[in-house]
Amino acid sequence: MGWSGFLFLKTYISKTALYLASAVVLVEFLFLSAKPYAGDPYAWREEARSIILYQQLYIDPDIASKFGEPGQYYVRNIRNGKSYSKYGIFNTIAVIPPLLIEYVITGELPTMIAPSRALILSLYRLVTVFFIVLVFFQISITLSNKKLASIIFVLMSIYSTYMWHYLRGTNSEATQLLLFLSFFYSYLMFERYKSNYFYFASWLFVGCLVLTKSSYLLIAALYCCWHLYNEYFLNKKRQILGFIKHIFSSLLVLAALLATNTIKFGHPLLSGYHAWTNENFHLNNSTFDFLYQILFSEQWSIFSHYPILLLSIFGFFTFYKTHKKTSILISVLFLCYFLFLSRLSIWKGEWSYGPRYLLFILPIISLPTIWTIDYLIQKIKTKNTFAILGSLSLIGILIFFIYI
């Protein structure tokens, strides 16, 4: 990493964030997942295995034909006839390091999951968890400057919501969460320091999100429009280079996606979700049914799976007054993606726990909870403040464990 990396950590990452992330990782270590996720992750692990062993992206046809229905996990390229994982290429990139470690240690890389792979994948996931907590706390303390409330908020977000379930899993939800948090933190740093380093870092993370799942292209488009709006209406100089920079960055992300689609599926407009006839991928879902399910149903409600959203309601106006511009961006990203998801026929992400397609943004939406927590801390002026808050947190965690 060198001195530049050390300077970055010292300047932008607090010791509290490092301590908190280490503590959470220790807890996660005690509850390591016994088995890796099958299904979708198996497809991109197989693609990563093919890269490591044979330096090729396509999958052995015997393996592709025997796992799932045609098009369910692997898609045949319309040009070369070879089979590829239908999922975004960054899923594959993210799983190369643990599989490479397994190959170096054991000297083999079997198709089926070996006991050593289950352990290595779980340990590797701890690295992801560490950086999720690190970045999440930095976002919280940067916006609020309330250390205790931010610590409590981060811990509540992990242990009283369905986030903990996905932090323990070896699917891509935790990776998507880390990428989105990293994007958002880079944006905050760009707004504070006006540094191109953070600007392009934010676009790098957006690009990785898009290459993980193509639906994040909506986030990329909104982020580009956000910068263009600010450049035109809020920047008095209105420099043409600013417009070019924003458009170029977004087009670069789009070009990366189209190039990946062409390599894997044979055409830039094929996403990989076109081949499985049972997928029924359409934008014709009932919005009213979606709203009922996402708000009130036992299986999909964001309030039952992410209950601290209710606390964020009480702190929203304070958050809005303190960070008007940031709160508008958060609201735009959430509402637009929420409306898009409401029309998506596969919005549930079946065979999942809770509304997993919203996990990436719910921690950011719930940021006003920090002000609610801080209000309670300030109001409870007794010696038993920490005992009361600790007891409430413990009760919340116990309720969550009973629920699951």
Please give a structural write-up.
By secondary structure, the protein is mainly α. The protein contains 19 helices and 2 strands. The protein has helices at residues 2-12, 15-30, 40-54, 61-66, 89-106, 115-144, 147-159, 163-168, 173-193, 196-212, 217-234, 240-265, 287-296, 302-305, 308-322, 324-343, 362-365, 369-379, 385-403, and strands at residues 74-76, 83-85. A two-stranded antiparallel ribbon has the order 1-2. Strand 1 and strand 2 form a beta hairpin. Mean pLDDT is 87; it is low at 1-10.
Task: Write a compact overview of the structure shown.
The protein is mostly helical and 404 residues long.
How far do the termini sit from each other? 41 Å
Summarize the main sheet: 2 strands, antiparallel
Instruction: Average the pLDDT over all residues and give the rounded result.
Output: 87
Beta-strand content estimate: under 5%
Helix-residue proportion? 55-70%
Judging from the principal axes of the Cα atoms, what is the shape?
Answer: globular
Number of strands: 2
Reading the helices and strands in chain order gives HHHHEEHHHHHHHHHHHHHHH
Question: Which descriptors would you attach to this protein?
Answer:
disordered N terminus; 1% strand; globular; mainly alpha; 69% helix; 404 residues
Task: Tell me the layout of helices and strands.
Blueprint: H1 2-12, H2 15-30, H3 40-54, H4 61-66, E1 74-76, E2 83-85, H5 89-106, H6 115-144, H7 147-159, H8 163-168, H9 173-193, H10 196-212, H11 217-234, H12 240-265, H13 287-296, H14 302-305, H15 308-322, H16 324-343, H17 362-365, H18 369-379, H19 385-403
Antiparallel strand pairs: 1-2
